[in-house]
Write a structure and sequence with these properties.
- The structure is a single chain.
- The chain is mainly alpha-helical.
- The chain folds into 2 domains: 99 residues, Tetratricopeptide repeat domain (Serine Threonine Protein Phosphatase 5, Tetratricopeptide repeat, Alpha Horseshoe), CATH 1.25.40.10; 101 residues, Serine Threonine Protein Phosphatase 5, Tetratricopeptide repeat.
- The chain is built from 13 helices and 2 strands; from the N terminus they run H-H-H-H-H-H-E-E-H-H-H-H-H-H-H.
- The radius of gyration is 20 Å and the shape is globular.
- The termini are far apart.
Length: 273
């Protein structure tokens, strides 16, 4: 049975709380090996490495967590602690300054509270998903992003759920936002191409995937996507086309409102006041 990354992280948390840091490391390495790691997984792995006496590995994992979520307060603080223990006081002070700068407010909550609530919404979304509640899961991830719009790991998950729900235009909007914020997030760029394809814009999909191939020529998934486009007559397909290799494609490209053209502007969820 395929165990979800979220479930493995929860198991790792249990090992961590029992001070079995090597057990936590082993489980979290499984998450990384799956290619589906998220900021919390890297942060917990960094903590585990730190308490297991491996500061260099700890710093590397905190860095990866911060790449996914630059406003991850706990990762900034724990990175500062490790740097201070290594005698790198200047760098530690810089990390604490960044943590203080990031500790503003979101949605009326202190930043660290908003981050915790966002993660709880995401966890609830996973629970709904496991129970078959796709639409409820999507709403929970939208709530999470209201609290932490910079949490691109959560936005990536939301985009995939929207594709699964057949809402390709909405998914396109989410993946495009990730790529604007983090141009080097090539997995999100690949998914942006897929969302364009499923929304009926094969020309945009081709452009995105060609750029991905230039930056990651060794990725066979990109070649498979481009080959799929080459099998079409015009390079433009209708929404609801057959599944792309390696993805559970939705059956409809409509957004929530049924609007929006090739630019993916339709279907934007109204922000809460």
């Amino acid at each position: 049975m395929d165990i979800s990354p979220e479930h493995l992280v929860e198991q790792a948390r249990e090992r961590f709380e029992l001070q079995d840091y090597y057990g936590a490391i082993h489980l979290l390495q499984e998450v990384l090996a799956s290619g589906r790691a998220f900021a919390d997984a890297h942060h917990l792995l960094g903590l585990s490495y730190s308490l297991a006496g491996q500061p260099d590995n700890a710093l590397a994992e905190f860095d990866r967590a911060l790449q996914l979520n630059p406003r991850y307060i706990e990762a900034l603080i724990h990175r500062a602690i490790v740097l201070n223990e290594l005698g790198r006081e200047g760098e530690a002070e810089e990390m604490l300054h960044l943590a203080a700068k990031a500790s503003g407010t979101r949605e009326g909550f202190p930043s660290h509270v908003a981050a915790k609530l966002a993660n709880q919404h995401a966890a609830l979304g996973e629970a709904y998903l496991e129970a078959g509640g796709l639409s409820q899961a999507i709403r929970q991830y939208e709530e999470a992003l209201d609290l932490g719009p910079g949490f691109q790991d959560l936005r990536y998950k939301l985009g995939r759920l929207l594709l699964q729900a057949g809402r390709a235009l909405d998914a396109r909007e989410q993946f495009a936002a990730i790529v604007r914020d983090r141009p080097n997030y090539l997995d999100a760029a690949a998914m942006l191409g897929l969302a364009c394809y499923l929304a009926g814009d094969g020309l945009a999909a081709r452009a995105v995937w060609k750029e991905c191939r230039e930056r990651r020529p060794e990725d066979p998934r990109i070649e498979a996507y481009l080959a799929m486009l080459d099998r079409t007559d015009s390079g433009v397909v209708t929404a609801g086309a057959a599944s792309a290799p390696g993805e559970d494609a939705p059956t409809s490209g409509k957004s929530r409102t049924g609007k929006g053209g090739a630019g993916g502007g339709g279907g934007r969820r109204k922000k809460r006041s």
